[in-house]
């Protein structure tokens, strides 16, 4: 056996085998690596491992070219050691008409200083021109429905501001960009008519985009204040304004602006009329890469409305535009978030980690492929461990924006991964509980308007993992230098059932859960149902959560399983329509993962087996194209992730697909 294999075996021995004593541990590892996969599964298994390996390579290479040689270095680098403004961030994410509109509004530095119509020019004219080349036939720039309102209003405002600022030079300035007045008028009127029709049909309960009750009223107000005002009257306008006033009443702006690390910075464009943006134009709010809140729209608003021109913000926007992928141009020229580096890394690892655990349990793959995958997986665990250490036990979702606050989701999932693959590690549950737990559930951020069910599922999964270790060790869960008392098993026996009861209360009548971060019910539903079924292994937790027996627990979860069985499309898919059929790959992967767990609890249920077979067939049919076509999830699949507008995260979706296809 060569030195490399021995070295990896050492990793497996120390990090990938559970804590329980096992005299045959090394023999089991060798068996895991050498055991061949059955012939009928071989080709698919090879593909899954190959694509998973490539996915980790992509993420690692984007973090740092030398990532796999020394993952600790990029972990330290992300915390402002070098103050390197060249690092704009990373992550594969969709482009955004909303953010592109904000960048299109920015006048250049000369006009900002002179305010003369004669001097008016745009800082990023390519973003303005984009709106003339990419308007949908219906007048939208972002499809139909409530999710198209904010991008439409922002696009219309960009056009209206151009006309107001250019004044008597309007036609000349348009001609300089190759646009006629006739074309401008046509695009403007189509957008206005689309928005009026959409607003007329809008029920604000149908929209839960990030800060929509702040951003939409701002745009409506700004449009009404144009030199040629645009005013929209619609049935929900008064209720929207009431919600706007309620939200503003909950935000202590003066307190927030006197400190740093606030999520408000991410949506600062909504406060252009409320504050002097020079108050955040400093190192307490601006990231090392020049952005504000990792948001192109927020960054653009500072450039446009702050009294002083911001060179760092301008360079940041210039760089992200120069890096945009041409195959997604139809959706805009800047992303909705920049960047999503740590979030993307952790969520890819969440699924790939699950895949590694399945492979480890099945012991059925060839040595070279599994060694490569597991070695890269361990490099990422090392990276996350170092990030966790440097950032004090909680993580933020951005890589280079070290002004964003930590969130519970990234914190608990990273810790779950660390504990799964480095069982001897010590994690700080106390800081997570103190920061995010309010006695009833876990908050995504210390200050937020609504809760997230999926965040709470992730938090409970971590607590249960620690509870499991506490049972085997019969001692405190955590020990760390800052406190003498860690989180005890007794404390977890109170917190876990409390949060589980909260999660149960959120289930809808048809057996599904909804969430604030992903619009698909399948995303949260598979996570919540899997969590509940896992309680069968923990009698005390199950009983305290309200289930007297495992039978009553399974009966409760069966309603969710039946929802999954009843919503499958004829082609085997689930979810919203896409170019591949009446459903899509992302939601299908989530439901398959739900049904895989269900199949272990209802082993003789033929309906579950048939649904799994057809769902898997649908994914396999589209597997190669979805994994190799860089624009696939940008152009052929629906956007399901929620921010100020809907977006997509291809690498995260790919990792879920690969995990869902693995046969235990």
Automatic annotation (TrEMBL):
Gene Ontology BP terms: diterpenoid biosynthetic process
MF annotations from Gene Ontology: magnesium ion binding; terpene synthase activity
Record InterPro entries: Terpene_synthase-like, Terpenoid_cyclase/PrenylTrfase
PANTHER family, per the entry: (E,E)-GERANYLLINALOOL SYNTHASE (PTHR31739:SF25), ENT-COPALYL DIPHOSPHATE SYNTHASE, CHLOROPLASTIC (PTHR31739)
Protein name: Terpenoid cyclases/protein prenyltransferase alpha-alpha toroid
Species the sequence originates in: Gigaspora rosea
